[in-house]
Amino acid sequence: MTTTTTTTTPSTADTGRGRQTRRRHVAGVRARRWARTLLLGALPVALISTFLVFLMTYLASGNPAAQKLGDRATPEEVTRLNASWGLDRSFPEQYLSWLGHAVRGDLGKSYFSGLSVTKSIGERLPVDASITLVAVVVAVLAGFAAGILAALRQGGITDRAITVLAAAATTIPEFWLAIMFVSLFSLTLGWLPSGGYVPLTEDPGQWLLHVLLPGGSLGLAVAAQVARQLRTSLLAAFGAHYVLGARVRGLSTPRILFGHILRNAAAPAIATLGLAIPTLLGGAVIAEAIFGLPGLGQYALSGAQSHDIPVIQGVLVVSIVLVLSCNLAVDAFLGWLRPATRGTR
Amino acid sequence: MTATATAARVFAAVPARVAGAILIVLAAVTVLGETLAPHDPRAQQAKLFAPPGTGGYPLGTDYLGRDVLSRLLAGTAPSIRDALAMVGVGLALGALPGILSPFAGRGAQFGLLRLTDALMTLPPIVFAIAVAGLFTDGELGVVIAIGVLLAPRFFRVMRAETLGFAGEQYVEAALLAGASRGWILRRHIARKVLPTLTVAATTSAGFAVLAIASLGFLGLGVQAPDPTWGGMLADSVEHLADDPLAPVWPGLTIGLTVWALSALADGLTDGLARHAHRPGEAGNTDGAAETAETAGAAGAAGAVAADSFDDRDGALPASAAEDPARIVPAQPLAPHTERVAADGPSPGRGPVRPQEITTRRPAAPSLLTVTGLRITVPGADGPREAVHGVDLTLGSGEALGLVGESGSGKTLTCRALLGALPPGCTIGGGRLVLDHNDLTTYTARDWRALYGTRIGAVFQDPAAYLNPSLSVGRQLTEVLRVRGGHSRPAARRRALELLRAVELRDPERVYGQIPTQLSGGMQQRVMLALAISCEPDLLIADEPTSGLDVRTQAEIVALLRSLRERTGLSLLFVSHDIAVVCELCERLAVFRDGRIVEQITTAGLLAGEARHPYTRALADASNIQRAVA
Known about the structure:
The complex is a heterodimer of chains A (345) and B (629). Chain A is mainly alpha-helical. Chain A is built from 14 helices and no strands.
């Protein structure tokens, strides 16, 4: 999450002249806030984190050509291969060239297979994107349903059951649930496949069946966090003055809850969801291992085992971009949800 | 504070005690390690997949015939050891920079904050895989990877704490007294920061245990054949069909460990962090987690308040100066009235009842009768009565003012009439009769039928009673469509009429704005538009002009008076300001200590006929003759 804190801009005086310019002024303030978030928040963060990635891989790179060519290669061959990868250049040169290519979407070629890293990641990303998407959908549906129900039945048996379950779900590793679900739904009941992946473009029905277990189990872990957060903020919001205001206008309880309270009280829960994205990506990596899915995590693991620097760099850069884009999307959504606090986080 | 007293506070709650017991067992297992194990955790026993409880294997054996309990016990030490090491790395990298960062230059602070943000974008598991591949896939690589990613947590928590303390008076006083920064840090801040740091470290340890399990599952960290909890889970997946119970044991072990750490963190928050709150020292030293959680909401509220305040200061003198006619009621409003009446979608019950404009009805039939109203409020020593038998009547089209100082029971009476007493307050006796119906018997559903169409309400602090996130137009059209039965386009038209009727100068613009973009006076006008949107018979106005500047206050009073004249509303107007009440109401009831001490007509009061000394004191204090003249 970016932490750029911009104060809500005081509006101009409501003078006749100020009035005409004010609407434009407000739009301008919003645009400037966005520019701030992007330029002072996301962009430096992206630059710093990618630089850290490059620095780390540079320090660890060693002598990949010797590793690839083996003992029988002559020193000339090793030098030539290292030079062809650009490893003979200075650190700033290497970094700038790498960054320049990465910005244009070129993450280099695997040292060992010679395949384009961008293309390989592009082939594997849909697997993790599918799992994460299903997880987010489950987290929102289950988390919001449970959180709302617990808040409405505060102190009751439903509330206590949800609270205990949610607390329990945050203490176990998120992939543990996946293992138990495979045991139950695949091996015992035989309802869902225990592994494998079918691309969405090939067969949407089979795609859903295959990603439901990994995505759903990861999503439930996040749903627990969302439900806890939502319950807390809903209970706080029930006593808010604007709720009484809406009540004495004669609006029904469901209308007040969904139309008024949720809009104001959902922000912390949605922020929780945004903060869980890095965890979800990690969870997807493990889910790949459990369900034998051909995803980013398997690519990263094999790349790490073979010390394949471009692969490691590529996976990290793509993860950073994913997390940052999700953060920006969450920021934008929260801004739309609560325009009064747009830009103040 | 003594150590034992602190410990007693930390372990006051049952969960914290259970957690403490679990953690002591874990510590013992970590220290004693494999000597506790009944079998060699690496040795293959005779029987594969032995069920729990058979053949001297309390939890059975795994796919290679190794004793599950022994493996769990042997896997404890590396988990705990690595988790502590990760927290140590995180603390070392994050805590001190966090404490010092508020004292750094702006550029350095910006850089540090972006650096922590950058580290937080790295998904822990993916990052640990990369570090393991680049450097070492043993424990060291995993500990460093996760430890580095824990650092931002400590950095942020410590920075927030220091920022919170640094601005406090005693720190500033010490600075003024010539104390060096370093001395202040050691002497004051470090001592108060320590409890928060302990809580953050405990929470982070739970996170670390989960991360270690995840990485162990992927084969990173402690390597086979040495047992790890994560590795046992990975093995269990391979043989799930043969042994469905296998994942349960490591799962439970991890779950209990993480739960114990989080319950201990809760106990520490209660015992340590709260304790740091000492008398004579202002400021919030509650747990950092709590601070972080509420920070968003508080910030938002703060922004709202600041915004409306800025607006009010800037906007109002200018607008009033520009259009002085606005504060003169009645006459200039006539064109409005006709327009609203002509355009009104429901002519029969239009907002204007012409026959009522010309005639005041002092002898009108009673709309509302309150007899013997008693209200009980929760107190420190159980419930106590705050309103002791209030009697009121309000005629149709009449305006009654309730005056009295704060705490005299006028607002509680109002809330009772709205069926919206604050939580814990109850009606202890009496009747509230609106049109022959006793409101004390009303259910929430019955009340809802009254709201908007029979009773409308405006309050003090309109900003708080408007939804801060929805445009004025959305809030108005919602009520008009849901309660008034208008179609979407009709609701829009009517909403604009209402905004015009409450004398907002640019209804189209206000329609699209959110409440925080409006000044306090404009917000109260919007509240009024909402309250009268479905043409109620009774408007309850609870201190609607308090908190507004004098000029805006006069405008709102004038608006209320003109609304009464145009629509024939009955008005129950609450204020602590007797002068304002006299401007608006025919009669007033004076509240004191939960009782009405006197009811008197405005004319009578102005003629000096008040009998009760308190009424006379109020009248004298506010110099009403001048105000009304």
